[in-house]
Design brief:
Length: 350
């Protein structure tokens, strides 16, 4: 399957090694044969491009023969470095273009917060406008990581709670619901997480959310709320590539070396092999004797030498495949209802 991408009002296919114009798929999308998905990418810098790549790859793997048409959007007030800005200028549209259209599905990414209260972020108002639009103009929307926290804060006033330690690594999660989104999944799956904050299951349950999976021991992983649109909330990162957590760990070490962080980062749980963990733990013990550049270089050498096993890719594909199938079913149901209504209109007029 090839994922069809809307770029500068033209349709393009992302195929291995090339990008080509695809007028046929553009016609299919207009005719309603494709599932139309919007990606609202709120990440910055290099993560902006990586996030786009990760979601395109995941949708491609999950499509299972379903034609998908993906359009890209960004919120106003998002600052990016030069590389992110270039990508943004090439094929991203303002969310203002959303409000005169309909998407079958929408994916909204998170972003590192700058403010203690998410409602003080410069993009808060435009974010909430997108949420209100998504309620009635999508069959389903995925809110990823920080976007999930911001969404439930706006919808029901549910605040997130900061953990004493960062939830960082690949965690075993247990399925606690028979929801269709979890169809054909094993009872226990692995999901990457990278966050300081979480939400309490009691807060979610009291406001009508259904928890689908929990992190082993304690904590919520995935939850949903069915309104006119099915809202899916992911505290983890099913879209992560094999090396993403490794890159985040290196980034956090460099932040510590530069004095941008007061604490040395913890190792990602359940991610590196035992030998690599031993080497990185030894480097952390020598943090006082190694100069900054020596430390960051030694960490880079240690992590790049390890072979990481991707234990979440299969489950991620299954969850997003189930999501696409739910959208297809909702789209078919809506089309049938519209046909019935159209057939009944002459009788009502008479």
């Amino acid at each position: 399957m090839v994922v069809n991408v809307d770029a500068s009002r033209l349709s393009y296919d992302y195929a291995p090694g090339k990008v080509r114009r695809a007028a046929k798929r553009q016609r299919q999308a207009r005719a309603g044969e494709c599932v139309t998905i919007g990606l609202l990418n709120n990440m910055a810098g290099a993560a902006f491009k990586a996030t786009e790549r990760q979601f395109i790859s995941l949708l491609d793997a999950a499509s299972d023969g379903i034609p998908i048409h993906v359009s890209f959007y960004t919120l106003p007030g998002m600052s990016r470095n030069e590389s992110g800005g270039h990508q943004f200028a090439s094929h991203y549209a303002s969310v203002e273009e959303l409000y005169s259209t309909h998407l079958d599905g929408l994916i909204v990414t998170g972003r590192e917060p700058k403010m203690a209260d998410l409602r003080d972020e410069p993009y808060w108002q435009s974010f909430t406008e997108v949420l209100e639009w998504a309620r009635t103009h999508t069959h389903s929307t995925v809110w990823s990581c920080l976007a999930a926290h911001a969404a439930i804060l706006h919808m029901d006033g549910i605040g997130r709670r900061k953990s004493e330690e960062k939830n960082f690594g690949v965690f075993e999660c247990t399925q606690v619901s028979e929801h269709a989104l979890m169809k054909d999944l094993p009872r226990r799956i692995h999901v990457p997480h990278s966050r300081w904050n979480g939400v309490a299951q009691s807060d979610l349950s009291s406001h009508g959310y259904e928890v689908l999976s929990r992190i082993a021991g304690d904590g919520v992983d995935t939850f949903v709320k069915q309104e006119q649109s099915l809202f899916v909330f992911l505290q983890g990162h099913l879209e992560y590539e094999t090396a993403t957590l490794m890159r985040e760990y290196r980034r956090d070490v460099i932040r510590f070396v530069r004095g941008e962080s007061a604490t040395y980062p913890a190792l990602p749980a359940g991610y590196f092999d035992a030998e690599t963990e031993k080497a990185l733990t030894a480097l952390r013990a020598r943090v006082g004797s190694l100069r900054g550049t020596e430390l960051s270089n030694a960490v880079a050498t240690a992590v790049e030498a390890t072979e990481i096993q991707n234990t979440w890719q299969s489950s991620a594909g299954s969850i997003y495949r189930n999501w696409l199938q739910l959208i297809c079913a909702a789209k078919k149901k809506a089309a049938h209802a519209a046909l019935v209504d159209a057939e009944a209109a002459p009788a009502r007029a008479g």
